[in-house]
Amino acid sequence: MLTEAENKTLTETHPSSAMGNLIRKYWQPACLSQELRSDGAPLRIKLLNEDFLAFRDSEGKVGVIEPNCPHRGANLFFGRNEQCGLRCAYHGWKFDVKGQCVDIPNASEQVAIQLKPKAKVRALHIKEQADIVWAYFGEGQAPELPKFEFMQVPPEQRFVSKKFQQCNWAQAVEGGLDTSHFSYLHAGIRDGMKVGLHEVSSRNQVRGDNEPVSLKRLRWLAEDGAPRFTVKAHKAGLLLCAARTGDQGQTYWRMTQFLMPNHSLTPGNFPEDTSLANTWVPIDEHSCWIFCYAWHPDREIGEKERARLAAGSGIFAEVDDDFMPIRRRENDYLISRERQKTVSFSGIEGISEQDQAIADSQGFIADRTKELLVQTDLGVVRFRNLILSEVMKENGAHPLGSQDPDAYLVRSGDHVVPQETSLDKVIQERFGNYGGQWI
Amino acid sequence: MLTEAENKTLTETHPSSAMGNLIRKYWQPACLSQELRSDGAPLRIKLLNEDFLAFRDSEGKVGVIEPNCPHRGANLFFGRNEQCGLRCAYHGWKFDVKGQCVDIPNASEQVAIQLKPKAKVRALHIKEQADIVWAYFGEGQAPELPKFEFMQVPPEQRFVSKKFQQCNWAQAVEGGLDTSHFSYLHAGIRDGMKVGLHEVSSRNQVRGDNEPVSLKRLRWLAEDGAPRFTVKAHKAGLLLCAARTGDQGQTYWRMTQFLMPNHSLTPGNFPEDTSLANTWVPIDEHSCWIFCYAWHPDREIGEKERARLAAGSGIFAEVDDDFMPIRRRENDYLISRERQKTVSFSGIEGISEQDQAIADSQGFIADRTKELLVQTDLGVVRFRNLILSEVMKENGAHPLGSQDPDAYLVRSGDHVVPQETSLDKVIQERFGNYGGQWI
Amino acid sequence: MLTEAENKTLTETHPSSAMGNLIRKYWQPACLSQELRSDGAPLRIKLLNEDFLAFRDSEGKVGVIEPNCPHRGANLFFGRNEQCGLRCAYHGWKFDVKGQCVDIPNASEQVAIQLKPKAKVRALHIKEQADIVWAYFGEGQAPELPKFEFMQVPPEQRFVSKKFQQCNWAQAVEGGLDTSHFSYLHAGIRDGMKVGLHEVSSRNQVRGDNEPVSLKRLRWLAEDGAPRFTVKAHKAGLLLCAARTGDQGQTYWRMTQFLMPNHSLTPGNFPEDTSLANTWVPIDEHSCWIFCYAWHPDREIGEKERARLAAGSGIFAEVDDDFMPIRRRENDYLISRERQKTVSFSGIEGISEQDQAIADSQGFIADRTKELLVQTDLGVVRFRNLILSEVMKENGAHPLGSQDPDAYLVRSGDHVVPQETSLDKVIQERFGNYGGQWI
């Protein structure tokens, strides 16, 4: 539970807010690479309560710049993206990806030379990596990009997308960190009884001795709705470990990474499975873009899996051409009360959509002054504490992880062990050096 | 005419307002019984500027509760209505119709036992009667339900519905009390001349000696647009009596009941006719639900009449599946300027729709600081005075009628008498003991 | 560049604003004559941040009155327009085009006689001329109508319309005065190169010795994007003269009239061409109506030209039945990035739509505190200075042109002269006495 002031601090990211100041010290995904074509249409993007235009120039370089022409304030969105610059449609002033004004055709050459330096528009530091345009919204020197594993693998081993979420970023993050809700929100219903993850369980019906671990864990999710949480701090964030009772003296561990300031690597995967992660980038106080990453360290993401993810599966939502989820706030996520009785606990199709629905349902900004937290909310509590303490750091101090790209090379995932196994051993066995650089 | 402060007092019903405090001392219709199915979808209802969820449990009992789960604030609208409770879709906390938390599955049993009392959510007092879910929004002990006649008759003798109105509740009530507008707003046009009530008059053309009283009165309505009002106070509200000149020394009386704090029994009926009444329940300051009741003390409402009311007739609007009128503010009530020339004074189809249009047209909240009231506005004036004086009562005093259910067993209606007949005699003749318990 | 206070002064026109006070000292177009039929539907018009109803009575006279009935505040929009007055649909109070209350049928005759003078509603001074309903929003005596040339010609020589613009009036005016943008915003693209005005150039391909001046000037527009501006002040406003380099020692002059407080006569025409002008009337701070006038002093506007203007051409937009442009803010003016590469500089169809797009793109109210003005913005600067200085005039002083109808009988247009010709001679040659009454 937070005070009203703490809740405000956690959730607001406009340029004059404390959290806005913090998040601007980290690289953030600005858009997908595929959204920008060379000399194509500029893309309007609003992030952290600020408006920008992204465009890809004739040489393939990406610029993310202030949208208004410094001459008379016309929006460069209507400009022509031509010959390595965006040219204003009103009087032809032209700007390159760095925001430099490179042409002022409605003034004499002499005047133009003097004016150009004053006519520079704000441009973000940009790096394009892993099919994502990354931007650094801060001032001054940008740090190195964080070394996420999905950035390190070849393109064939990766699939990325994004989706729009109609609520404040922080409660959506909290949904990602709170893996205890898998036992409810994502559960299936069979014969009126709650069973494991609907999406998978409805396709598989093997039971008994031949039940594979991939199905067992769904059963464990359904059977143990009160997992025990342990949280470990590392140099880029937190490893959130949830223990559930398995079969015959076994413990089923699901381990989630939270990486500063707004990334998460999701659990639910064994080593053979595809890894998944998210970044929640605030648009304004009431909405955010959720960037979604799927990758495998060792093998390709095949065409079939790629098509499935693109159509909406797991953390990937079914979206339209503008990356707006088909099932969303305005249509109550197309909830079916009939299916809620017979097929899935939520009556909403899609893991992602279930997560989005429940986060939206907390309000545009969740009221954290009224809560009754329990032990399974430990991950959520530690996330809030970490953010609020980093926000408090002296001006000038580098917040956790921001200058430490290697600290982001971590993994999340599941493990099944005899119940007496220590958590340290669990982490070592499952992740080796990819657990985190412990603080 | 009111001061700005008085207008604010009259119209605002949020929990910290004076009128909000008053109205919370009376039972109010919350929704129709038919809107809630056992173990069916919860219904979002906003009333008196507060959000609630209504649901009917496995045993048929109705709950109207706060919408947000006390755990992490997820909206219980997405919950499962199952086995006598609404279970949150996020982590499975479950609440019964009284708001009691009956299950906290993501905590240990010991923790859950301690938490449940703290996890109670606000639930309104509920009674279901006359096909309506009645709620008491106040704190503490609820009084008895008011004994409206339509509550006392068997279901076959009653038909109820509701409709949405896009303006403040009070001006909509005033439209119901101001029966003088029948001579204009609801008039028909024939051969370019204003004639009686369009809806009826267009179907009937009998004149002269054989003209029945049901048509005569429509002619009187058209001919006498300045009725003389007398208002009598009783223990649940006001009896508003309007006298119009009839034929050959007769007086045509139309008598309307206003019942505290927001009910009205409409005039226009002789003893053989169906009785009609309304309740205007504020949703927020800019909209309200109008509950509509039709009944007859002695005979059934037949299938044909029932179908006609359901399709929109008289005080019943033509509505869609969500009880939104088809003809409404956004589409200018489908006014036809052609029909306004040739068929009806307003050019809008439907008595209800005409009333709704004119109330909406006064603005979202009518500006009562600018008015030029005349004698026919007496009912409106007395309504305002009564509300404002009841609002002023000492805290703790019971407002008029709130503890007096029998005082609501009154009737409204029309009567034709020789002009020398005293009003008291008129009332006695027409209503007997159903006029009101005079103060 | 303006201060924030100056920008506010320039752009706000509500009744208690300085600019609102200024503009109310001039006649303004309120609607098109064609929008009002005798005894037809009243038209809701919002102008200068105030709501009115316009209606044409049985005798053809036009009234523009306050919308709310003084009795109980019902909106007279739903009233009956009958027998020389608008009758309220609620209780039948009736008002004539002067706002006089001429009937109060729900009161006794004696009461009605006393009430009628108090029941007068505000009515604007109205004159109907040149197919336009002109209104004087100020108090007291209205001056004479300004003598625009399009008002003086017979109806056959004139075509008028209007269009909705979704931004503050002042930046839309500035777009009309800033003719330097013709070299960019309205340019065509051929073989990847910017060429003259797209709309015309795409239809004509004559070059070389036979190139007519009507095409030459388009080439000059494309070739000289930095015209030299000279501004001359006269008794109704400003003559803005832009010189571009023509062929072989010639200068191509384009001369625009700005007429107080919100009119412009556009350039681009030689004597044989149709003349064009606009008035930008604020609706509220974020939108305006642009009235569009086409006329020729000496010849008829033929059916073919009339049809072309009605369909959208030049300053006339393609509009729907409510005069809303088909290409507008919500649909990004149907910009085609493909056509922006190959056909037109903007990718937007229509000169008018290009102007509207770029003005809207400056924001709902352009931020004039952040600008980098150049010499070609001289006309814009002089417009602002003139408005701001007239706003500052002592109360009671008549602002420029407001009492001087003859000063509006001026013309705009183009001229081609040897480069040594003085501007005074250019103006004398091209306009004679129609240049302006110099101050």
Task: Describe the secondary-structure layout.
The structure is a homotrimer of 439-residue chains.
Chain A: H1 4-11, H2 18-23, E1 27-32, E2 43-47, E3 50-56, E4 62-65, E5 80-81, E6 86-87, E7 94-95, E8 101-103, H3 109-118, E9 125-129, E10 132-136, H4 149-152, E11 158-165, H5 169-177, E12 187-190, E13 193-197, H6 198-201, H7 213-223, E14 228-234, E15 237-245, E16 250-259, E17 263-265, E18 275-284, E19 287-295, H8 303-311, H9 337-342, H10 351-361, H11 378-392, E20 413-418, H12 423-431
Antiparallel strand pairs in A: 1-10, 2-3, 3-4, 5-6, 6-7, 7-8, 9-10, 11-19, 12-13, 14-15, 15-16, 16-17, 16-20, 17-18, 18-19
Folded structure, characterized:
The structure is a homotrimer of 439-residue chains. The first copy, chain A, is α+β, with helices and mostly antiparallel strands and 439 residues long. Helices cover 23% and strands 26% of the residues of chain A. Chain A has twelve helices and 20 strands. In chain A, the strands form five sheets. In chain A, strands 11, 14, 15, 16, 17, 18, 19 and 20 form an eight-stranded antiparallel sheet that branches. A four-stranded antiparallel sheet of chain A has the order 5-6-7-8. Chain A has a three-stranded antiparallel sheet with strand order 1-10-9, with no helix packed on it. In chain A, a hairpin with a 2-residue loop joins β18 (275-284) and β19. In chain A, α5 packs across α10. Chain A is elongated. The model of chain A has no long low-confidence stretch (mean pLDDT 95). Chain A binds chain B through residues 174, 180-181, 183-185, 225-226, 332, 335, 337, 340-341, 345-348, 354, 357-358, 361-363, 366-368, 370-377, 380, and chain B through 39-41, 68, 70-75, 77-78, 80, 88-92, 104-108, 111, 115, 118-119.
